[in-house]
Amino acid sequence: MHGGTATTARGDMSTAETRPTAEGTLHRQGLRTWYRTVGTPVPGRAPVIVCHGGPGMTHDYLLSLAALDRVCVFYDQFGSGRSGRLPGAPEVFWRPELFLDELAALVSHLGFGTGYHVLGHSWGGMLALEHAVARPAGLLSVVAVGAFASARQYIDEVGGLVRNLPAEIRSAIEHHEAAGTTDSPDYKVAVRAFYREHVCRAKPVPDEVMATLAALGEESTVYNAMMGPSEFSLTGSLRDWDIRSRLPRVVAPVLLASGRHDEVTPRAVAPLHEGIPGARWEVFENSSHMAHVEEPDRFRAVVDAFFSQHDPGSG
User: Fold this and answer.
1) Does the annotation mark 122 as catalytic?
2) DSSP state of 77
3) 117, 198, 289, 310: which is the annotated catalytic residue?
4) What predicted TM-score, i.e. pTM, was given to this entire model?
5) What is the pLDDT of residue 16?
6) Domain containing 167: what range?
7) Is residue 314 part of a domain?
8) Mean pLDDT by 10 residues, the chain (315 residues)
């Protein structure tokens, strides 16, 4: 998910600012990953690692999840935010395997091998599902929010959403996509209209979301390499990504979550629900792509109940 420039924001004291917090750094193969641990261990409630979207966004827009009553680990994936960067690296460097290795290394570094959950949003949800495909020791459950199963199917679905926009917005997007002028002010205005409908319907836009969008606007190397210049064409290294054939390997319990108005449409999510044994799918009727800020109370309640169901000793 790529962010547009929002015009309004609200002040919202994050739980991450009121719970015990520690920061750390993971070093591996010359790469540096920054992370933040929020909360103190609670008996019987395993920690959760939170994977942000983008690719190339930062963890900030997910900080409201620190309200979950368990240790929450947020991190900026390599190439973004407070982690190390390689702006001159070729597209081939920025592939899912890089971030899968990073996540596995973080689990090991934190000593979570005896039990942990993973929550991923958008690209982070895709990453979380790939992590589950590998069947790592200690993985208790996965929550994948706004994730799709196939890049090509996602692009087809997004194209349908664009075609349903008002004519002037649709025309601006289609014209500038075809002309390769996605840096045009008119294009950016049209994209913001799409985002207000299918990415974040919260009004005003929360401060933590604004912080992530600002960071992505300043550093878009990873997004451009993996997605391309926009949400609508997907020309980067993820263009052929398709997890459908690997889904039967997932053995961890999985909760899929998406919004009724999500840019990741129900048809894009459905193959995950069909392909993952025993997967549960929760649709948030009043949300688009960011149910955690659009319906925050219900979202946290659903996620907390799911994690609690799969905590150690819960069975």
Assistant:
1) yes
2) P
3) 289
4) 0.94
5) 63
6) 9-309
7) no
8) 38 61 95 97 97 97 96 98 93 96 98 97 99 98 99 96 96 92 92 95 94 90 92 92 99 99 98 98 98 98 98 83
CATH of the domain at 40: 3.40.50.1820
Region of residue 144 (left: phi > 0; alpha: psi -120 to 50; beta: else): beta
**DSSP symbol at 273:** H
Active-site entry in 83, 122, 258, 287: 122
Has residue 282 been placed in a domain?
A: yes
Compute how many other C-beta atoms are within 10 angstroms of the C-beta atom of residue 281. 17
Assess if residue 2 is contained within a domain. Answer: no
Selected catalytic residue, list 60, 262, 287, 292: 262
pLDDT of residue 169: 95
**Nearest partner of 50 among 15, 90, 84, 4, judged by Cα:** 15
Q: What is the reported pLDDT for 19? A: 81
- Asked if 262 is an active-site residue, the reply is yes
| pLDDT of res. 12 | 41
- The DSSP bridge partners found for residue 73 are 37, 49
Distance CA 227, CA 62 (A): 21
Contact 225, 28 (CB under 8 A): no
Q: State the Cα–Cα distance between residues 300 and 28, nearest whole angstrom.
A: 33
CA distance 187 to 289: 21
Q: Over the range 37-69, which residues count as b (16 or more CB within 10 Å of their CB) and which as e?
A: bbbeeeeebbbbbbbbbbbbbbbbbbbbbbbbe
